[in-house]
Amino acid sequence: MQFEELNMWQDSQEVYFKLAQIFNKEIFKDYFFRDQILRAALSISNNIAEWFERETNNELRRFLYIAKWSCGEVRSMLNLAYKNDYIDKKLFEELADKAKHISIMIYKYIEKLK
Length: 114
Hints:
The protein is mainly alpha-helical and 114 residues long.
């Protein structure tokens, strides 16, 4: 199996892609916010990929925890995006729910490694 086959990796790529479509537009001028939310979203899939390349359970868990923490950061940033009217309620709920689901999938993998 490859990490590209994992639903949690695929879903995290989808979250990043949707956020990039919104915040990479030239009209979006809050560059600090854009960079922070995109880096957090990208961190999820990248840490899942790095996890797949590690060899010990401690290393595996470490990268999965980082990916899970990044899910929380994305959800926090989504809350700010919604409150600042950067995104509408429907998109906020869709992406926040997707981030929560990814976090749950990651947690289940962490539990398997214990």
